[in-house]
């Protein structure tokens, strides 16, 4: 029996319906608009401008400023440019394949803890440092994307050490 990708997608659509039912709306604090986030599962083969417009309308209606869009294959260059130029929204795009494995549970990835602003200031004061003197982590780093970090946030990293047992280091997101 030969099965084509078209027949699989038709089968998935008939059995499971649209991926839109997988949409998630979550928040930490109901009254804080900054803590709200949408997770959209894109139905199209490529994420395009039309899909972004519909997501933008939903986010505006619900007063949400952050979103994660999960795409099946690719993102068009126009959509990528639009996402990068958004001022009022923070949108992150993940391929489905990137979400198959929880990278924080991998045995070679050390434990990461995101510091609060208060903890960050205490760290800088304790060691008499400026933020620019901390080791850097790119915004595009997989751990940074996993935790949805913003520029300027600091991560405390616990690494195993043969001599000390546990080695702690800090990185700032740039």
From TrEMBL:
GO terms for molecular function: DNA binding; DNA-directed RNA polymerase activity. InterPro entries: Arch_Rpo5/euc_Rpb5, RNA_pol_Rpb5_N_sf, RNA_pol_subH/Rpb5_C, RPB5-like_sf. Its main location: nucleus. Belongs to the archaeal Rpo5/eukaryotic RPB5 RNA polymerase subunit family. This is RNA polymerase subunit H/Rpb5 C-terminal domain-containing protein. It is found in: Nucleus. Residues 101-173 form the RNA polymerase subunit H/Rpb5 C-terminal domain. Pfam families: RNA_pol_Rpb5_C (PF01191). One of its GO terms (cellular component) is RNA polymerase II, core complex. Gene3D superfamilies: RNA polymerase, Rpb5, N-terminal domain, RPB5-like RNA polymerase subunit. It comes from the Eukaryota. GO terms for biological process: transcription by RNA polymerase II; transcription elongation by RNA polymerase I; tRNA transcription by RNA polymerase III. Keywords: Transcription. SUPFAM superfamilies: Eukaryotic RPB5 N-terminal domain, RPB5-like RNA polymerase subunit.
């Amino acid at each position: 029996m030969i099965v084509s990708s078209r027949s699989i997608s038709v089968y998935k659509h008939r059995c499971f319906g649209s991926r839109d039912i997988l949409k998630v709306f979550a928040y930490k604090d109901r009254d804080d608009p900054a803590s709200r986030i949408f997770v959209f599962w894109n139905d199209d083969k490529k994420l395009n401008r039309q899909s972004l417009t519909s997501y933008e309308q939903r986010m505006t209606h619900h007063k949400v400023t952050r979103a994660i869009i999960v795409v099946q294959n690719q993102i068009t260059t126009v959509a990528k440019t639009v996402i990068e130029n958004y001022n009022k929204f923070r949108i992150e795009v993940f391929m489905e394949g990137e979400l198959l494995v929880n990278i924080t549970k991998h045995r070679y990835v050390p434990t990461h803890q995101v510091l609060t602003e208060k903890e960050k200031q205490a760290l800088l004061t304790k060691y008499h440092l400026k933020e620019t003197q901390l080791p850097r982590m790119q915004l595009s780093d997989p751990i940074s994307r996993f935790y949805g970090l913003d520029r300027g946030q600091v991560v405390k990293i616990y690494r195993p050490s043969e001599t000390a047992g546990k080695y702690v280091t800090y990185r700032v997101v740039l």
